[in-house]
Each structure stands twice: as structure tokens, then as C-alpha cells.
Design brief:
Layout (H helix, E strand, L loop, with lengths): L2 H11 L2 E6 L1 H5 L1 H12 L3 E6 L8 H7 L3 E4 L6 H20 L11 H8 L3 H4 L6 H10 L7 E8 L6 E12 L2 E6 L18
Parallel strand pairs: 1-2, 2-3
Antiparallel strand pairs: 4-5, 5-6
């Protein structure tokens, strides 16, 4: 594809736009075009300031300084900056998916009645042995490509509870990115076969 078409398609399809604010990006005609298009389409913004700009252009102050920002140069570490940025983006994406409201919607009476017919043991929260849980995490070696176990869930036809296996996708010292090795549950999206919207 032509690069302009590709960028426009991705920009129009995004949930939240991260604009990396630097002296070079603020001087770029292409970056200005992308910002103006996103604003015209009502996209959510986070301005990610990658450097301290003493003389911010007046056009940017007028149009874009009202949006949330994350000033990377204000944080002591890369991890802290990324964690804050991730939190801001997550909040904005959630607000968009819930129609702009950050509070969770109350379940309908119909759903409550459905749950009331479930066996009690499914509705009860499992008792967590915190010490055993912590020990399980400490004993695992979170090396990229390995499989670790912690937590448990019914995983057989007879409902037998087994440890949950996790694939280690990445390891960052004291943190790791995990993905469950197997799907743990399978439920229908809707009880009746009819057209619905998301």
C-alpha cells in the first residue's frame, strides 16, 4: 500500500493515539496532518513528551495541550514511565469501550437470575492460600520459553482442579509476561441465536 493510505487506515482504526512529542515531530508536516485527522475524527489522545520542549509551538498549545500527557523525562526509570503510560492508555481505551463511562455497569436481572440457578460451588470464591501462592511463584524460574505453574482451575470433564500452566513470553528481571498454555473455559457469547451488536 501507499504509506499515506496505510497510516490513515491505522490511525482511523485505533482506540487511543499516542503522539510522541519532540521538536522534530512538531516541525513535521506529516505529523501535523496525522494529528489534525485524528482530532477531526474524535480520537482519544495521549501526548507522550519524549523531551522537555521549552518553547512549545502556539498551534500545539491551542489544539492539543488540553489532552492527557505523559512526560517521559520526569520519571526515574523506563519501567515507571511505561507503567504510567500503560495505565493512562488502558483507562482511555476502557472508557471508550464502555461508552465514556469508567464505572462498571450493573448486571441485568436476567443475568442475576441465570447465575442464581448455578450450583453454589461455582459461585463461591475459591479460598486462596496466600503463602502457598507466593511460594509457588518464588520457586518458578521465569525464563523466556519456559512453562511455569501457579493458580488452579477445574480443567477436566469431571471438574478436577489442576494447576494452571503459563508460557513465559518475556522475562524482565522481577517481572514477566505470561500467557496461559491452554484455554481454561468455553462459554457462549449469547444464549439465543439471533443478531446482536457489540
Amino acid at each position: 500500500k501507499e504509506w499515506e493510505e496505510e497510516i490513515a487506515d491505522k490511525l482511523l482504526g485505533c482506540s487511543v493515539l499516542l503522539f510522541l512529542v519532540s521538536e522534530r515531530s512538531l516541525e513535521s508536516t506529516n505529523c501535523k496532518d496525522e494529528l489534525h485527522l485524528a482530532r477531526a475524527e474524535g480520537k482519544k489522545f495521549v501526548n507522550v513528551l519524549v523531551e522537555n520542549i521549552s518553547d512549545m509551538p502556539s498551534w500545539f498549545k491551542l489544539r492539543y495541550m488540553r489532552y492527557q500527557d505523559c512526560r517521559l523525562f520526569n520519571y526515574d526509570s523506563y519501567d515507571e514511565a511505561v507503567e504510567t503510560l500503560s495505565q493512562k492508555v488502558g483507562e482511555m481505551a476502557f472508557a471508550r469501550s464502555s461508552g465514556g463511562k469508567s464505572e462498571a455497569k450493573k448486571p441485568s436481572e436476567e443475568i442475576i437470575q441465570q447465575h442464581a440457578s448455578y450450583p453454589e460451588d461455582i459461585l463461591q470464591k475459591p479460598e486462596i492460600d496466600a503463602e502457598k501462592y507466593d511460594r509457588s511463584i518464588r520457586n518458578n524460574k521465569f525464563e523466556k520459553g519456559s512453562v511455569v505453574e501457579f493458580g488452579s482451575y477445574p480443567q477436566t470433564a469431571d471438574g478436577k482442579v489442576k494447576p494452571i500452566e503459563w508460557l513465559v513470553l518475556e522475562s524482565y528481571g522481577s517481572k514477566a509476561m505470561l500467557l496461559r498454555k491452554y484455554a481454561l473455559d468455553n462459554k457462549p457469547y449469547h444464549e439465543k441465536r439471533r443478531s446482536i451488536t457489540w
